[in-house]
Amino acid sequence: MAYPQTSFIHTSLTPDTLLGQRRQAVSANTLQYQLDVLKKTGRYDAFKLKWHPVYDRAPEVWPIPDHLFWDSDVAKWIEGACYFLQQQSMPAIAKAVDELVDMIRSAQQPDGYLNIHYTVVDPGNRFTNLKDMHELYNCGHLIEAALAHQALCRNDQLLSPICSYVDLLCKVFGPGPDQTHGYPGHPEIELALLRLYERTKTERYLSLAKYFITERGNATGCDGRHYFDVEAEKRGADPNMKPAFYPEPRSLWYHQAHKPIAEQTTIEGHSVRAMYLLTSVADLLRLEQGHHDLEAATYRLWNNMVNQKMYSTGGIGAMKQWEGFGLDYFLPQGTSEGGCYSETCAAIGVMMLAQRMLQIDLDRKFADIMELCLYNAVLTAMSTDGKKFTYVNQLASSDKDLSRRDDWFTVACCPPNMLRLLGTIGGYIWTYNAMVEYRSAHIDVHLYVGAKLTFDCGSDVVELQQETNWPSSGDVKFSLRSKSAKVDIRLRIPGWAESWKITPECPDAEMKKGYLRIRSNWLEKNPDFTLSIPLKPRLLLSHPLTNQNTLTIARGPVVYCVEDVDNPWVEDHFESILLSAEYKIMEEEVHDPESGNSYVALKVIKGASILDTQAFEETPFLTNDKLSKGKPLQELKFVPYYFRANRGGKGHMRVGLKKTN
Ligand SMILES: [Zn+2]
């Protein structure tokens, strides 16, 4: 049960918790809202393969036609819808899934090929620009949609045509002399192929995934040259024409194709591509022994990402131009400071990678980051009503980029990714393994969420329930039910926790890599127990090499921000607010009547001030002793970053505040 996409079905979430409420917003609003958008924009009917006026339009970003991702937009909606339909009946949504599946089936070409752009708009040129045109990326999402559809409907109506398409790819791509030695510019199909292999046990799907992963970045893979150079030359591409999103001509590192993955030393380029690629590598490491170089590279790239290139919210990608990683420690908070992108899909990708790493190495460092992303960079991307979204998740607003949400995007990768994630979130909470022959099981608890896990262990049914108001409260009540199976539980103790306590006391519990192992013999006597982790506000320093010199307030896994709604006097996006490390802070449980959400708000009393820059007017080069301490602020109010941009206001927001000298 390694994949959240298959294990989530064993978990039911408590409705009135934070995640339960977000899932309810998706069921009540988001699925239908996104379906309406698919219909309104032409995506819904695109697999009918008729001409659409959008196809005549000059691309917003050359050379990517505006409709290029439509296959994946539809596929991701189907996939997300199928996850929700597995746990809840929604007839209108189910009907749309059926219609879309029929349309996709009808769009398949006689040889199995299945892609809107290269069938309707540019026939005859399929597989000529793997680097830029997302053909295989779209196929990857169709595979994932088909797997979700099969799990829901228990038929192969979608899986069968998709397997035919993949069979065609298995013939076209590979190491053979008559095969194309290429791989996708935007990884995704690799992780989808591995999932397809695990579902169907078809060896050639594993081989193709492995080929795409290991061939990537081969400088001499195609007639002694790099595949992306050869395909560009073959189609007569002008080497001087550079897409606006390429950092430089060729830009192989933008695609993580500058070197074989096993030789890459730092995480580079487009961040969503990097996360999808490494997620597939982590899956391969779990499936097959012996990929030592790939394993070492995965840890190396993870560490570089987390230690040098990640925001305090779990967001990644400082660079807007290539939606990706900048230099080590280049982590400005917003446009006015020089950047910050932090795409929603990238943070979801970090969660995917972290969840996969936990399957091969139960180390809390992965779960801590997974939780950080979930409660900050990811949850902030959807409004409480589930109808508005963010693509970019900056940590500070500016006049150019206010802290606001949008209804939809031309490149609409992020909104349906929220569906997929929230649809399978139950699978991220825990991993279980039932060893029927030994009548035993173990459950690794990664996230604390009001939820119940139920699974079979032979003739026994094992149930583990969490009752908690996390992340507002740090108390988690566990109830384990099992007639005869022996169950071990491993609980993650977060790295930020100053202390923790199990009640009743469990003296034999052992800690390994941040997971506390509670053995079955204790659990048999104590099936109801409580884990308490005090959640206190804490101040996070920015790394000195970032030159940010800021303080960020966090409480448990939740990072806080200031918004003008609570601090209406602000005129400069909180740019000139100073925060002292010595202050009094008050917690307040707030109920927002409009969304029905409750959260802990924070109020800093007499710890903040407004920077006085008057002295700089005489000279921009002031000695430290001349700098004023600023005008004290009586109080400054903070809300969770995930809750930002839900209550109107001017769109002024900031996470890290300048640290008082
Ligand atoms: Zn996205």
UniProtKB/TrEMBL annotation:
<dbReference type="InterPro" id="IPR049174">
    <property type="entry name" value="Beta-AFase-like"/>
</dbReference>
<dbReference type="Pfam" id="PF07944">
    <property type="entry name" value="Beta-AFase-like_GH127_cat"/>
</dbReference>
<dbReference type="InterPro" id="IPR012878">
    <property type="entry name" value="Beta-AFase-like_GH127_cat"/>
</dbReference>
<dbReference type="Pfam" id="PF20737">
    <property type="entry name" value="Glyco_hydro127C"/>
</dbReference>
<dbReference type="InterPro" id="IPR008928">
    <property type="entry name" value="6-hairpin_glycosidase_sf"/>
</dbReference>
<dbReference type="Pfam" id="PF20736">
    <property type="entry name" value="Glyco_hydro127M"/>
</dbReference>
<dbReference type="InterPro" id="IPR049046">
    <property type="entry name" value="Beta-AFase-like_GH127_middle"/>
</dbReference>
<dbReference type="InterPro" id="IPR049049">
    <property type="entry name" value="Beta-AFase-like_GH127_C"/>
</dbReference>
<dbReference type="GO" id="GO:0005975">
    <property type="term" value="P:carbohydrate metabolic process"/>
</dbReference>
<protein>
    <submittedName>
        <fullName>DUF1680-domain-containing protein</fullName>
    </submittedName>
</protein>
<feature type="domain" description="Non-reducing end beta-L-arabinofuranosidase-like GH127 C-terminal">
    <location>
        <begin position="546"/>
        <end position="655"/>
    </location>
</feature>
<feature type="domain" description="Non-reducing end beta-L-arabinofuranosidase-like GH127 middle">
    <location>
        <begin position="443"/>
        <end position="526"/>
    </location>
</feature>
<feature type="domain" description="Non-reducing end beta-L-arabinofuranosidase-like GH127 catalytic">
    <location>
        <begin position="17"/>
        <end position="422"/>
    </location>
</feature>
